[in-house]
């Protein structure tokens, strides 16, 4: 078997059609059919049932597809990383989620450039989960996100935890309260804005928080980040609305349409229309992670991390110093 046969098989399996697979691969249908037949002959296994429409994988084909798809993705990742190692980019491409941009990221970039006048920086707005794919493809060299993921090709450095604040319309009765409790907010219209969800394993509450073990086993885990915060305390908001992004959520809060929770760094956004009040629960925080490749991070990533810690020290922010793996 060869790589062309494997790619042809995966394309056919995903398209469930020779004609659609031909469009996607820009190969003729006879060529795809021939490559698939060669692969099956070499293996001595029928992988795809031709008589069904759409095409269906055999049991062996289903197993082979899952393994080969993963293998091909890894091969593509290795190829891309090897090409970048041979031809490193002179610029540092940084991916970020919008909530980080409202915080200290601009100050960090300015500090980095002052210390290293030769560095070129390009910023890219990209979600936490999409940053993993972008790191492997070379679209970005480093990312700032708010969700923890385990991945064989990347590493994460926990920078710090940022407390959540409650964003309320200025006319809200609780806008001048010293703090807010999650139980008080359960009766409010909660606006959700995350496009990235927590991995299911992170959304399961601890044993000490289980009020009813049988109920927790039978119910699916809560993976929406804001709802997960409430679920940790056994609270379910009565009314929620999902919007496309954080800016829309804060716009609705400013218009008096509901409330939301945001990291503390955003409390200057729309401050004329929105009151930001601290949560009574000090452990309700949003982490900030630096994400980069594990084996071959960009050579300027340590400089970026140094600039981050310099800003933290100037601001009096508590952090635990860490380092990326050596280049």
Automatic annotation (TrEMBL):
It comes from the Bacteria. Pfam families: HTH_1 (PF00126), LysR_substrate (PF03466). Residues 1-58 form the HTH lysR-type domain. Keywords: DNA-binding, Transcription, Transcription regulation. InterPro entries: LysR_HTH_N (IPR000847), LysR_subst-bd (IPR005119), WH-like_DNA-bd_sf (IPR036388), WH_DNA-bd_sf (IPR036390). Signal peptide: none annotated. The keyword Transcription regulation applies. Gene3D superfamilies: Periplasmic binding protein-like II, Winged helix-like DNA-binding domain superfamily/Winged helix DNA-binding domain. Belongs to the LysR transcriptional regulatory family. PANTHER family: LYSR FAMILY TRANSCRIPTIONAL REGULATOR, TRANSCRIPTIONAL DUAL REGULATOR HCAR-RELATED. This is LysR family transcriptional regulator. It comes from Psychrobacter aestuarii. The lineage of its organism: Bacteria, Pseudomonadati, Pseudomonadota, Gammaproteobacteria, Moraxellales.
